[in-house]
Specification:
InterPro entries: Cyt_P450_sf. GO terms for molecular function: heme binding; iron ion binding; monooxygenase activity; oxidoreductase activity, acting on paired donors, with incorporation or reduction of molecular oxygen. By secondary structure, the chain is mainly alpha-helical. The relative contact order is 0.13. The chain has one domain (7-226). The chain has helices at 7-18, 23-28, 30-54, 60-77, 89-103, 107-111, 113-121, 133-159, 172-188, 193-199, 222-226. The protein is 64% helix and 0% strand.
Length: 227
């Protein structure tokens, strides 16, 4: 959404997500409350208490990174489908180191993704970024798409009554944007709607952690999207 060049489409997408991020929605969200309790009471506080008892030093910068992305992705995709970097610190550090590499080169894939894709195809990516940038972006892209796919499978299973989605596992932001896009597709036959379903990223959802997720994908069939 941050890279949308046209005011109309940007405003339309912003309206789709405004309610789910409204102050009243956040303060009254049962799923946000449930996931917050689990993240704080079952993970964060016991971990700090263990470190304090053992007298071990800790790098709080890494901890703040991990708990922040776990919190945000839990609200976006649901706790069961989100990142778990607080309990996987090595993986979290790898992700954040990759993001640091990407930070200085966000302009190219975010603002001119078509050119970046073309440059990559013809092995000219050195023109827009040093070695390691693409690899770091691929790691973040894989993470985001995996969380998105897991949230989608949970929604589909719930619709088929094969499984219930627990309160803390509700994919609040993903479900809101998904339903809005499908409604828009049904009313206006927007051909880009299906592509956006796979194109959603943490950057698109205000986390701005995945500037390289610019390539559109698709689900296996139109029927899968409609169900």
């Amino acid at each position: 959404m941050f890279g949308m060049p046209h005011h109309g489409s940007h405003s339309k997408r912003k309206r789709m997500l405004s309610l789910v991020y409204a102050k009243r929605t956040l303060q009254s969200s049962p799923s946000l409350l449930a996931s917050t309790r689990i993240l704080l009471e079952d993970r964060f506080i016991p971990y700090l208490q263990g470190l304090a008892s053992a007298g071990e030093p800790v790098e709080m910068y890494d901890i703040f990174h991990a708990i922040a992305i776990d919190f945000i992705s839990a609200y976006v995709f649901g706790l069961r489908h989100c990142s778990d970097y607080f309990r996987q610190p090595d993986m979290g550090r790898e992700l954040f180191q990759g993001y640091q590499i990407l930070k200085e080169y966000q302009f190219w894939p975010q603002e001119i993704p078509t050119f970046t894709e073309w440059a990559t195809k013809w092995n000219l990516f050195g023109f827009v970024g040093p070695s390691g940038v693409q690899e770091a972006g691929a790691v973040i892209e894989e993470l985001v798409l995996r969380m998105q796919d897991n949230a989608e499978m949970a929604i589909q299973a719930a619709k088929r009554e094969e499984a219930l989605i627990e309160t803390e596992d509700q994919p609040n932001v993903y479900a809101q944007l998904r339903d809005s896009l499908l409604k828009d597709q049904a009313s206006k036959k927007d051909k880009n709607c299906q592509a956006w379903m796979r194109h959603m990223t943490l950057a698109h959802l205000a986390i701005r952690q995945c500037p390289y997720c610019y390539q559109n994908g698709a689900y296996t069939s139109d029927e899968e999207l409609k169900n």
